[in-house]
Amino acid sequence: MGAVAFIVFVIIDLFIISSLVKKGAEKKCHKCGRRRAKYELKTEVIEEESTTVTKTSENEVKSLNDKPVKTTINEVVKPAPKYKYEVQMKCRYCGDITTSTFVSSKKLH
Ligand SMILES: [Zn+2]
Fold it and tell me: Is the pLDDT of residue 24 over 60?
């Protein structure tokens, strides 16, 4: 059970990293071709999805002679909402505005 939770967290992390990379790549202006020309004009939540993450932990109860007697598994369901953002980027050179979306598990602003 612990391994499954770990894999889920790795997938979520990769998801966050890839969306951050995407955001950085969009700083290049496609109209005038200048790099790092775009700045964030507006970021707003356009969709909110409420999902949950189940965290499990095992507790081994030991007897006096150090032999495990029983194993209890604790399951904690934690809310893990996802937010879909719409970002408007404006070019500081030619004024071109592009709109893109990304999903994050963090609530910005
Ligand atoms: Zn431009």
Answer: no
